[in-house]
Structure formats: C-alpha cells, structure tokens
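The material for today's practical consists of a large collection of protein records. Read left to right, the backbone structure tokens trace the chain's path through space. An example says more than a description, so a record of this kind follows:
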Amino acid sequence: MWRPALLLRPSMLAYLASALALLGRYGTQGFALSIFLGLALPQFSAAARPLLPVTIFCFTTVVFMRADFGVIAGLVRRPAKLVATCLWLLFVPALLIAGALALLGREALDPGLLLGIAIMGAAPPIMSSPAVAILYGFEPSLIIAGVILTTIVSPLIAPLLVDFLAGAAVPLDRLALTLRLVLFIGGGIVVAAAIRRWLGAARIRELKPNLDGFGVLMYFIFAIAAMDGVTKAAIERPGQVALFLGVAFLISAIGLASAWLALRRFPRSERFMIGYGTGQRNMGLLVAALGAGVPPTTYLFFALAQFPIYLLPWLLRGIAARIRRRETPADSA
C-alpha cells in the first residue's frame, strides 16, 4: 500500500516544478497581475496579513541563496564602483526625502504618512531588483552585490535613517527595530547558507526557472497580504488613497531619474537599475520588523507603495529594451 504513495511524490514534485517554471517565464506580467489580484481578493487579505513576515523571510533567503559570491568578490577587488553604488542606494533616497520634508515641513504631513515615507527612504532596495535586471536582459552583478550588501548593513543603518527622517513627530524604538532586522536578515543568511551547502551552487543554477516562479508566487501572497484594508480605504477615503499613491509613484520616479542623471560614468543599464533600486524600497522588511506597532495610515502607505514595485517592471520594459539595444552594439564592438 505504501508504494503508490511513494510513486506519487515524484510526479507531484515534477508538476509543482513545472508550474513554478511556467510562472517564472512570465515574471513582469506576474508581478503586475499579483497586485490587482490582491485588490480583487480583499476577503483573503486579513487572513493573509500574518504571512507578510514569512514572505519577506523567503525573499531574503532566496536572494542570498542565489547570490554569486564569486562575482561579488570580483567587484570587491575593484571596489570603487561597488562602494559608490552602495553609498548611493543607502543614503541618496533618504537625502532626497529629507530635502522634500524640509521644504514641506514635517508638521504638514499626517504622522502615519510621515513614518511611511521615512520607512521608504530608510529601507534597503527591493530584493526583486536583481530579478528585474535579469528579466530585462541586463548584466545583474552590480545590482545583486548592491542589494545584498545594503541589506546586510540595513539593521544598523535603517533604524537611524527612519529616526532621522521621521524626527520627534513619530516615536520609534530603534533598538527593537535593529534586533528584529538582525533576526530577519541574519536568519535568512543562515538558512540560505544551509540550502547552498545542501544543494550546491550548480543545482541552484539549474533551478533558476523554478526559483523565479517561486518568487512570483511569494509576490502574489505578499500582494494579497499587503492589500489588507486598501479596497475599503479606497471606497471610504479616495482622496487619501490617491494622495498616498501619488507620493509613492513620485518617489519612485525621482529615484530613477536622479540616478540616471547623476551617475553618468556608469553604463546605461547599471544606472537604470541603480535608479530602479533608489525608487523601489524594501519597505516590507521594516514593516514586518515593526510588527503590530505600525500605525494604520503607515500600513496604508506601505500597501499603496507596492503599486510602483509591482507595475514598474512591466511599465518600464520598453525603456529597458531600448537601453539593451543601445548597449549591445557597444558590447559587440
């Protein structure tokens, strides 16, 4: 009686692997579709919200598991570009936001929105940035190294930046936030190291389509969880939702434009992806670390800030294709 059960396992695993690989082939479309499915399934959002920390931990683990540390070591041997990238990704978003807050005045903003903007400026780049670079056909080494290194140091840097940006208007337990970030990121690194040791780097490379699909699946679950309360807020407070959404897209656009204009010595694809990481921030990492202490309006801004994260990989694909075509002849020559 046990043999049929055992025989089912390989076929079920093969089916699951094929399904994940299929999801992985439609990465940008999957990201865009996920956010709207999250809105369309509000009845599941509240139930899925406790899964937010789980999906964040999975993202962290998979990024570290797939990291090519040989490539990172090569960049470290010629550190100028990597150091400049990390410093830009760590501090420029916060400086841009600090400048805007100085012009507007912190007192003019809802405290929850202020904390949300501070979290956006302080968070490391979104962990899907390397995946987006690969989907666009760009060389991903620099953005991979930048995301990994800035994420590693974020437990020390991010709480200070949140406090700097939010100011006295939003009290924050920096020590608790730091310890929780250490647990999230350190735990992800440990689990990733164990998986790398078990599977080996070659096997992980073979599983690329499946891991891409797993990433899309995690983004789908994350989108459902993140959209908790958004549909209701859009019906009851459409003006606030429109404002928060506009701020999120504006920060994303300014981040992309600032790197594109300032980092002229970088190849087009690299400054495009650095700009993408400047505007797309891993707010979920800090929101998950803050836990139940996140004010409702901060959570609403975090949820609405997912729209540029989910939609821009699809919306920017035409620009990315033009950049790739321009760089290819230069590379060939």
Notes: The CA atoms of residues 124 and 264 lie 23 Å apart. Residues 1-8 have pLDDT under 50 and may be disordered.
